Structures are given as structure tokens and as C-alpha cells.
Amino acid sequence: MMKESKKNRYHGFKVPDAYFKAFEFKNDFKKQSHGFQIPENYFNQFKVSNQIKKDKYAKVFRLIKHSKITYVVGMAASLLIMFAIINSQPKTNSLENYDIALLESYLLEESIYSSDISSLVDDTVTLYELEFNNYNNINDKEVENFLLYESEVEELILN
Amino acid sequence: MDSEIQLISRLQNSNTKSLAFNQLVELYKERLYWHIRHIVKSHDDADDVLQNTFIKVFKNITNFKGESKLFSWMYRIATNEALTYLNKKNKMKSISSEDYKQFMIEKLTEDIYFDGDDIQLNLQKAILELPEKQQLVFNMKYFQEMKYKDMAQILDTSEGALKASYHHAVKKIEAFIKQHLNH
Question: What are all long-range contacts of B48-55, with beta carbons under 8 Å and residues at least 24 apart?
Fold first, then answer.
């Protein structure tokens, strides 16, 4: 059927006068049936803006993209805030603990022994005397004698 | 096709680009305008988008590889520009999709460049109820009488999917118009 119609086109079939003119008009009518209108001579006067011509000139290109700068600054700011928060946190050690910790480290660093500390407490006690009090060398007999004749432990207990 | 190849060649040659571009604008401005207009509805918006489309075409024509027809490529740019334009306007107004539809209809009613009657206004309302892609398919098929083959290239969708989409769009529009005519 299709082949026949194509063949017939070249065999003298005629169309009514102004048929194609009317056909074009109908096409326009269908296109215009949406209701949209345009200003008069809009398409005749339409020109692309001069923005294209301006773009012909050399542009200033950013070496580093804005978004990357913003990202880096944001990261730096976050890190600063983090450090500030960490440094501002109060230390868990109390004053008492602080003093003991400092004292312990001082003692360790300076190799100070109990004998040295005692001398600081009582000036009358000499180092020699304190060394005598190196309890590793004291035997049980000495302790017993001390308790019996030198100390006032009984009195302290009774009282 | 040969003339298109020659035109592309002149567009991609810096010596002949300007003159070839004027020719391109003359050839396609009307078709692109109407495609855009059916998406954005308003003449002023369509004018802006048409400008943006041609600017984009001018800037990117050197990258055009001829994998599709020149017109399909331009049509795709126009579609994207129109949708981006609408989305940007929507975001600026921070309105819901329902309010957006209402806004578009009100704008159309007040538009001096819209002289459609009640049927045409209802048709536009019905089109706005469709999902975005169905709106595109319907406008391109019904108003612009585009072939499915060309639509497939522009929308990067299979012909079968487009036919199904158009069929569904027509059904929904018919139902909408019938419902509103009865009121």
C-alpha cells in the first residue's frame, strides 16, 4: 500500500489549490493552541547577549578554587577550636595530688632519700645519725632493747 | 546532514565561528524558544533561558564531538538550562511543590503573553500535575510533534520508555480535565 502511494505521487495526482498553505496554517494553529504568546517581532529582534564577546578577553583564573580555600580555612578553624577546648579542660589532679606528684618527681629526679628529708625537718639530727636508721641493718635484738629501754611506747599505749 | 557537518566545522573554526554562530541562532532560535517556553511557561523566563542556552552552546561548541545531532545536543542544553532555572527560582522562594504549581498557574493567568481559554489553562494545570520527565515528554510530543527517535537522544531514554511515558501522561491529563470539567 505504502509503495503504491509513493508510486502514485509521481503519476499526476493533484491537490486542491492552496492545500499546503492551509495545511501550514493548521500546523500553526495547533502550535498556537497552547495559548502562549510572544512580543511582536521578538524573533526578528532576538540577539544573543554581549556576554559572549566579553568572554573573549583574558579571564582572571583563580589558582586555587574558592571552594578549596573555604574547605582549608574551615578545617584550620575546626582544629584551632579543638585545641582550645582540649587546653581549656581542667586537669583532673586536685591540689593535693598535684603537690604529691610534684614532690614525687622531685624526689626521684634529685635522688633524695628519707634520711635527707628528715634532716630538713629537724636540724639537730645529723646525717650520720640518720644513716644509723637504715632499717635494713637493724636486728630484732636491737629493736627489743630499744623498745624496753629507750622508748616510751608503754606509756603511750597505757595513756 | 552534510550541511550540518559543514556548519559544525565552521563553528569549531575560530575564524568562522562568529558568522556560523549567527547562522545557528537564526536556524534554531524559534524551535528552542518554544521548547523552553513550554517548560518555564513565562515569556520573560523563556527569553532568559534561551540566552543562557545559546551562550552555553557558543562556549562548548568546540567540545561537540558529533556523537548526536547538533540540534539534539542543543535541545539537551536548553532542557537542562530550563530545569535548572526553574529549580533555582523554586529554591529562592523556598516553596513546596504544591505551592509551586499554584504559583505557576497564577503567573500564567496574569501573564500578558498567555491568552489561552479555560481549556488551555486546564491543560496547563494538568501538565503541571505530571512528574517532571512526563511533562517534558508530553510537551515535546504533543506541542512540538517531535519523533520518539529524536526525543530518545535528547532525554537519553529509550523510545519504548518514552512511548509508555507519553501514554501515561495522556491518561492522567484526560482524567484531570474530565474531573475539572465536571465541576
Answer: B48/B85, B49/B78, B49/B81, B49/B82, B49/B85, B50/A46, B50/B78, B51/A48, B51/A49, B52/B81, B52/B85, B53/B77, B53/B78, B53/B81, B54/A48, B54/B25, B54/B29, B55/A48, B55/A49, B55/A51, B55/A52
Q: Which residue of A has its CA nearest to B56?
A: A52
The string of pLDDT tens digits covering residues B127-138 is: 999 999 999 999
Q: What residues does B114 pair with on adjacent strands?
A: A36
Give residue B98's pLDDT: 79
- Interchain proximity B55–A33, CB inside 8 Å: no
Look-up: residue for cell 580555600? A69
pLDDT of A14 higher than 60: no
| Nearest-CA distance A18 → chain B (Å) | 23
Q: How far is B34 from chain A (nearest CA, A)?
A: 9
**Coil/strand/helix, residue A1:** coil
CA nearest to B50, candidates B94, B18, B6, B81? B81
* Mean of pLDDT values over B88-114: 81
Sequence letter at residue B18: S
Q: What are phi and psi of B126, to 5 degrees?
A: -65, -40
Collapsed DSSP state (helix, strand, coil) of residue B15? coil
| ipTM attached to this prediction | 0.77
Euclidean distance between CA atoms B40 and B35, whole angstroms: 9
The three-state secondary structure class of B114 is: strand
* pLDDT over 50 at A5, yes or no: no
Segment of A1-10, A110-119, A150-159, B20-29 carrying the highest mean pLDDT: B20-29
Residues of A in contact with B113 (CB under 8 A): 36-39
Contact B173, B126 (CB under 8 A): yes
What φ, ψ does residue B180 adopt, rounded to 5°? -80, -20
